[in-house]
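Researcher: Structure for this, please.
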Amino acid sequence: MKQHKSLIIAGLVLLILLILAYANHFDNGFHFDDSHTIQENVAIRKLSNIPEFFTNADMFSASTNHRGLRPLVTTSLAIDYWLAGGLHPFVFQLSTFLWHIGLCIMLFFMYRQLIGKVSTHRWVPFIALMGAGWFGLHTVAAETVNYIISRSDVQSTFFIVASFLMYVAYPQKRKYGLYILLAVIGVFAKETVPVLPILLFFYVLLFEKELSLYAVFRRSNIKKVLGSIWSLLPLAVAVAGTQLYTLSRMSQASASHGMSNPLGYSWLTQTYVWFHYFRSFFLPFDLSADTDLGVISNPLDWRIIVGVVFVIALIITIFKTSRQRATRPIAFGLIWFAASLLPTSLVPFAEVMNDHRMYFAFAGLSLSVVTALGLLIIKRESFFTMKQHYRYLIAGAFLIIAANAFGVYKRNQVWDTEETLWKDVTEKSPDNGRGWMNYGLTQMSKGDYKQAVKIFTKARDLNPGYSTVYINLGIAYGGLKEHSKAIGNFSMALRLAPGDDAGYSYFARYFLEQNRFEDAKNMAEKALAINNRSYMAYEVLMGALQGLNSWDTLKQTASAALQLNPGDPKALQYLQAAQQRKALAPLAKDVANAVSVLNYINISLEQYNNGKYEDCINTCKQVLALDPNNADAYNNICAAYNMLKEWDKAREACQKALQLDPQHPNAPANLRWAIEQKL
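Model: Predicted structure, C-alpha cell format:
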C-alpha cells in the first residue's frame, strides 16, 4: 500500500513537472509547414469537411507540393479550429500536449508490462515510471510538441503504443481484433504504423516464445518463428491494406519527397543520422528545427565511419542482450529504436535528418535505458536500502528529469515566434538556405526590406535552385520599389518551378499592388489552373476583377471562393461589389503606401490570429501613420481591444472604422460585441 501511494505521488510530481516545463509553449505560434496545412488550409475551417478528409488528399494542405492523406491529423486540426473559433495557437498547442500526456501514461503501463515479464522486483513500477517520465520530459520531445503539424508523430506513436499495449496486456482479447483497429486508426495519422507488426513479431519471439535472436536461426525453432508470423498476419494485412489506400489517394496529389541518390541516403548518411539520434538521447544540445546535414557521399568520411561502427555495435548489443531473459527489454527497446527509423531511412526524403523523427524512436530507447539502469540498481539494492541511500536514486532521477525539463523550457522559448525559431536555425544550421530564407521572412514582416534582401540573397547563394527564395526576393524588392529586380526574381521563380502555384499567386499579388489588374488577373488564373484550392489566388483574382470592373466574372469568382471558404468576409465584400457593380473600398493611389499598408494589414491579421493582440494594435497604428483613413486598421484595432476586454477602446475604434466605411463587413459585429460586453 505504501509503495502504491509513493508511485502515485511520483506520477503526480512528474505530471506537474511536465505541465510546468511546457507552460511557456501554449502561446507559441504556427511555424513552417503549419502555414499551408493549417493557416492557409481553408478545408479545416468547416467540421462538415471531416468525412472528405478520409478520401480527398487535396484537403490536407493548401500547397500542391505537400498533399497527402492524413485524415486523423486534419480532423483534429478542424476540431481545434472550431473550438478556438479561429487560428488561435493556444487550443492547437493544448490539443497536441494532451495527446502527448496520454501517450506518456500508456508508455508507463507498456514499460511496466515489458519489464514485469522478466522481473517481479518491487521497483519495477518505479523504473517504468522513470522511463515514461524521461520520455515525456525529454528535451528532444519539445521539437515535436511545439511543431503543430508534427502532431502526426504524436498521434501515430500514440496509436502504435495503444495497439501494442492492448496486444501485450490483454492476450485473451486478441481474438476480438481491437488492437488491429487501433493500428488502422494510427495509419491515418502517419506512415509509420507498418513498423508495428515488426515490433510485435520481436515481442512474441523474445517474451512469449522466449527465444533469443541467436535461437531464431536454429532449425528447431522454425515452427515457432513461422507461427509468430502467422499470428500477426491479420494485423499486417489490415495495416498494409490501409496504408496502400492512403498512398493510393496520395498518388493523386503532387506530393514529392524529392531526394536522389538513395544509396548514399540510406546506407551511408543514415548510419550517421542514427548515431546522432542515439547520442541526442543523452546529450540533446544541438537541436535545430531545420538541420543543414546533406547526403554524405564519401564512404571514408569520419561521420560515415562513426555511423557504421555505431550500427554494427547496435546490432551486436541487440543480439547479446536478447540472450538473457532479464535483459530482453533492453534488446526490445533497441529493436524499437532501429525499426522506428526504417521508414525515414529506406525511403529517401528531402531532409536526411529531422529532430522530430526521434519522437517515435525514443519511445523504445527510453525502455532500453531505464531497464539497463534499473538492472544495475537492483543488483546493488543492498547499498541503496542501507542507511537510506535510496535518496541518491531519487536525487539522480530528479536531476535527469529536471535537466531535460529545463531543456524543454528553453526550446519552447526558441519556438516562440518565427524570428526566434529561424534565428536559432541559422545559428545551429548555418548552411541551410531554407533556414536563412525563413529568417529573412521575419525581417520582411517587420518592413525591413533591405535586411530581408540581404538574407534572401544569402539563402539563394546557398540554395540557388530553391524557387521560393526568388518569390521572396521579388516581394522584398517590390517593397523597396526596385520593380525591375522584383519582376526578374518572380520570373526566375516561375522558370524554376512552373508547376508550383505559389509563384503565380505571389506574382499576381505583386501586380495587384501595382494596380496592374490585367497582369494580376492572368497570373491568378494560372495559379488557380494549377491549384483550384489556392485561396490567395482567389483573393488576388477578385481584387483584379474589381479593378477591371469585370462585375459578372467577379460575381462568379466570389461565389466560387465562398464555396471554398463559406462566410469569408472578403469574398462576401467582393460579391456585394459585383452585385452593386461598384467597388466598395477605393484603391489606394500611392503605390508605395499601398504595398506597405497591405503588408502591415496582413501582418496585423496574423498577429491577431496568433493571439498577439497588443502587437496587432501597434502594427495597425503603423498603418494609420501611412493611411490615416484606413478603416481596416481601425477595425483590427477594435477586434484586438475586444480580445483584451478593453471595451471602451474597442468601441471607439469600431466607430471610427464605420465613419470611414459605413459598409465595412466586420466593424458592425465587432462594435456590437464591444457594446454588449460593456453592458
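Researcher: Any notable elements?
Model: The chain has 33 helices and no strands. The longest helix spans residues 89-116.
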